[in-house]
Amino acid sequence: MRYIRYAFLGVLAVVLVAIAMANRSMVELMLLPEELAALVNFQQSLNVPVFLVFFGGIVAGLLIGFFWEWLREHKHRAAAAQRKTELRKLERELKKTQAERDKDKDEVLAILDQSA
Questions:
Q1: CA dihedral (79, 83, 84, 89) positive or negative
Q2: Which position among 19, 25, 52, 114 has the lowest Cβ density within 10 Å, counted as fewest Cβ atoms?
Q3: What are the protein's UniProt keywords (predicted)?
Q4: What span, in angstroms and rounded, lies between the C-alpha atoms of 57 and 59?
Q5: Where are the beta strands (DSSP E) in 1-116?
């Protein structure tokens, strides 16, 4: 299975390098459209290769998706934490009840009851 993963990552690397080599031409990225930039008197632009725009879009989409899922699953994580806290409380209560039940018993019988 490890070799399949390495082969997949190798093929993916070759494909990404081929895309980058085929899209090396420079493009100008502007923060705002020209009309809006003239209105607010703020013009910011950057010259970058096309493949950086492409890969940056992929990374931004992944990050937004991961964050969205993290927010969506919050209720499940909160419920799991609540159940974990309740389980610990019940385990402590059970140990206390067993200790009270076994306090008048012989030590050997109490140990046998706890192991069963």
A1: positive
A2: 25
A3: Cell membrane, Coiled coil, Membrane, Transmembrane, Transmembrane helix
A4: 5
A5: 26-30, 45-49
pLDDT in tens, 27-44: 999 888 888 888 888 888
pLDDT interval class at 20 (50, 70, 90): very high
Q: What is the number of domains present in the chain? A: 1
* Residue 106, φ and ψ in degrees, nearest 5: -65, 150
Q: pLDDT tens for residues 52-70? A: 999 999 999 999 999 999 9
Residue 18 resides in a domain = no
Range of the domain at 34: 26-115
E strand or H helix at 51: helix 50-72
Distance CA 36, CA 80 (A): 48
Q: Beta partners for 26?
A: 49
